[in-house]
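Quarterly update from the structural biology core.
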Amino acid sequence: MSNSVTVIGLGPMGRAMAGAYLDHGYRVTLWNRTASRADELVRRGAVLAPSPAEAVAANEVVLLSLTDYDALYAVLGGVDPALLAGRVLVNLSSDTPVRAREAATWARERGAVQLTGGVLVPPSGIGAAGSSAFYSGPRDVFEAHRPTLEVLTGTDYRGEDPGLAALFYQLNMVMFWTALSGYWQALALADAHGFKAADLLPYAVNALDLKQFLEFYAPRVDAGDHSGDVDRLAMGLASVEHVLHTVTDAGVDGALPAAVVDLFRRGVEAGHGQDSSSSLVEVLKPPRN
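Predicted structure, tokenized:
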């Protein structure tokens, strides 16, 4: 295994990754549309390639830290396929499982291999103990380059299907962004009543610690058990309506809690009023043919 790598895309995450490789003695080649973002890394010893083609040609392993897969095609679409042949494209850009599979096919048609990745930490977590990222794609390629990937984070290999890392990443994003949006909503409501984020902080930490609930509901959901022995959706609907009224009474935007009320109401209308709120999983599933 060569201790050299190319990093394409120097937003905060890409810069953190390139910095981690430099810290570990790797030879690092960079490319970014805005070249000045590489200045500090170049001072530390990285090499700035003048074009994507030269960046790709420099190393077998090419890490892509881009906004999405459209950016991948915009950057690499003009590169001679002969330069892509034999390269391992570690695609850490965020996008959907479908697009990850399409990009893997695109890479394969050019003689390259894609490892799809999904990083579960912010830039500050790169290189830190306990950090993790999902990967999927050919197992032999993943295993061959695991030491290089583990410079950045721990690795959680999900399988050969290139879409699986993107799927598990998006599963995490569903939970993360929804929960964090609830926190922003609470801060806006607190502010309307004269309280600061610092006032709410210890209560927010406690409210967002859902471990006991997740561990309780997971086996029941897998068993299809939505018994209303602990909670009932009809009572949950009343609760989320109280949240909505509290928000709107304060003049705060109520779009987010209104969406939650709508979901709970649809569950009740579907006949789940006396079932657990976990029955909303069934409401959210696609219709059966």
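The chain has a mean pLDDT of 96.
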